Amino acid sequence: MESIADELFKEFRENSIAEFFRKNRQMLGYAGKVRSLTTIVHEYVTNSLDATEEAQILPEIRVEVKEIGEEKYSVLVRDNGPGIPKNIVGRALASILSGTKFHRYMQQRGQQGIGASGCTLFAQITTGKPIHVRSSTGKESYECDISIDIKSNKPVVSNMRDVSLEFRGLEVYGEFADVKYENSEHGVFEYIKRTALANPHASISLLDPTGKEYTFLRSVNAMPKKPKVVKPHPLGLEPGDLVEFAHRSESRRISSFLIDTFSRVSDAKINELKQLVSFDLSKSPKELTWQEAEELIKAFKSMKWVAPEFDSVSPIGEKYLGLAMKNIINPEYISVVERKPRVFRGGIPFVVEAAIAYGGGAGRKNDEGEEAGGNIIRFANKVPLLFDSSTCAITYAVKSIDWKRYGIKDFEQEPVSVLVNVSSVFVPYSGVGKQAIAQEEAIIDEIKLAVMDAARNIQRYISNVRSRNLAESKYKTIMRYITQLSGDLSELTGNKQEVLEEKLKKLVDTKYKKLFETDEQSNNTQDIEQGKSTQDIEQEEGEDEDKGAS
Ligand SMILES: Nc1ncnc2c1ncn2[C@@H]1O[C@H](COP(=O)(O)OP(=O)(O)OP(=O)(O)O)[C@@H](O)[C@H]1O
Ligand SMILES: [Mg+2]
C-alpha cells in the first residue's frame, strides 16, 4: 500500500539549472525591457573583451541592434578574438554553468559560465528562436544554430556547416522579444560608451535601431597587462570555498592540498596549523567536513600571514583612464587617481581608481542634451555597472563625501562626472545580476580616499576658474565706464580726456587683465600632482589615435 509520503512525492522532480533560470530570469538581469536588452549586449561584449584579452588581441567589436517587431529586437555582436572550436561551441553558448573562467582564480569580466547561455535561453523563451553563430578559429570556420534543451541543460546544435568567413573570431546573432532600445542612462549606447571609457585598448562600433552609427576608436595601442592566475590567500576564504576546493582537489593530504591550492601556505604554517585544529591534517581533502573547514578558517584568522600577491589585479591605469576620459567625455578639466592595491576581508586584493571630470562634456545631460548635474560612473573590473546603483558601495562612498569642501556646492547640480573602477579577482557583487558592489568597509574607505584625492585637484581648478571669472567680469565692468569716467576726470582736472583714458586703461589692464590671462594659461598646462589637465594628456600621448563617438 502507498503511504501518504509516496503519494505526495510522486510530484518530486529535479529541476535543471536552465529550467530554474527560465522561471527566474530576473536573476540573470532580464527584468525590465531596457535592462534586458542592455544585459544581452553586456554579456556578449564582456565575453569578447575577455576572449581578446586572453588571446592578447587588440579588440575590434561590432554591435548591431535592429528593431524587428514590436518590442522585438535582433542583436549581433562580432569580435576579432580567438573564436570557439566547433566541438565546444554548443556547451560554451548553451549550457548554463559551463565556461573557461569560473574555475580559475583570475581577474576577468565573466566569472560564472552563465552569461552567454543566459542569452540563448532568453532568445528561446521570448521568440522561440535559436541563436545563430559564425566563428573562425584560424583552423576551422563554420556557422550553426544553437539552443538549449531546457529539461537537461544540454546544448542543441543544428545546421552546422563549414563556411569561409571574412573575419576571425566569434559572431553571435539572436532575436529577442520583451525588450526595448532606449537612449537613456540604462541603455545600450551608454553601456557601450562606458565600456569604451574603461577599455581604451578596444575599438567598439555600434549600429543603433535608427540606423545611426557610432564608433569609439581605441586611444591606446597596447594591450592591458594580461591578468595573472593566482592562488587564493587563506584570509580571503569562506568555509564553502574551502570545502569546494578540498573536494575537487587531487592531493592526498589536507596539508599538501593547503600548500598547493593557497598562496603563502608553507610547511612552517602547516606545523602552526596542526596546533590550532582538532583534526588530522594528513587525511584526504575529500573528507574535509564543513565543521573542519570552519575550524581551519578560524585558525587562519588567528595566524600572521604575508599579504597576498598584488599582481593579480589589472586596473585601467591612471594615464589611460585620463586619456579615455578626455576623448570620450571631453571635459574642461580631469583629475585621475590610481591607488595602491589593498585587501578586503583580510586576504582579497583589490585596487581602486577614480577620476573626476569637470565642465565641458562632464555630468549628466537631460533629454535635450543640456547639462543636468553630477553623475557617478561605476565600474567593476572595467565593466560598466548601470543598474542597482542605490545599493552599490561606489554610490554610497561618493555620496558620503562632503562636496562643498571641494568647491562643489551641490553635486546634483554641477557639471561633474565621478568615475570609479574597482578591480579584483573576486569582486564582491551584492547580487547575481552583478550590477552593484557589496558595501564592504575596506572597499568603501578606499573609494572615498581615491575620490577625495582626485577632488582636491578639482577644488584647485574650480577656485582658479572662479577667481579668473571674477577678475574678468570686474575688468569688463570698469572698461564699460572708462570713457565716461575719463571725461568726468578731464572736466575736474583740466587734463586731456584721451591721455586720461589711455592711462586708466593701462591701470585696469595691469590690475585685472593680466590676472585672468595668466591664470588661464597656467590652468591648462599645469600638472597638479597626479591630476592632469586635458592638455597635459594630449601632449603626453601625441602619437596615440583619437577616440571619440562620431
Ligand atoms: N566571444 C567569445 N570568444 C571566445 N570564447 C567565448 C566568447 N564568448 C564566450 N566564450 C566562451 O564561452 C564560455 C561561456 O561564456 P559565458 O558568458 O556563458 O560565461 P563566462 O563568461 O565564463 O561567465 P559569466 O557568466 O560571468 O559571463 C566562456 O567562459 C568562454 O570560454
Ligand atoms: Mg560571460
Tell me about this structure.
- The protein has 15 helices and 17 strands.
- With 550 residues, it is α+β, with helices and mostly antiparallel strands.
- Strand 7 and strand 8 form a beta hairpin.
- Helix 7 crosses helix 10.
- The longest helix is centred in the C-terminal third of the chain and has 53 residues, at 441-493.
- It is globular.
- Mean pLDDT is 88; it is low at 519-550.
- It binds adenosine-5'-triphosphate and magnesium ion.
- Adenosine-5'-triphosphate binds at residues 43, 47-48, 51, 79, 81-82, 84, 92, 99-102, 110-117, 170.
- Magnesium ion (MG) binds at residues 43, 46-47, 110, 115-116.
Strand order of the largest sheet: 5-4-3-6-2-1-7-8
Number of strands: 17
Beta-strand content: 15-25%
Could you tell me which ligands this complex binds, including any ions or cofactors? adenosine-5'-triphosphate, magnesium ion
The tally of helices reads 15
Provide mean pLDDT, rounded.
Answer: 88
Q: Characterize the main sheet.
A: 8 strands, mixed
First and last CA, distance: 76 Å
User: Uncertain spans, ≥5 residues at pLDDT below 50?
Assistant: 519-550
Shape: globular
Structural class based on helices, strands and sheet pairing: alpha+beta
Rg, rounded, reads 29 Å
Summarize the structure.
The protein has 550 residues and is an alpha+beta fold.
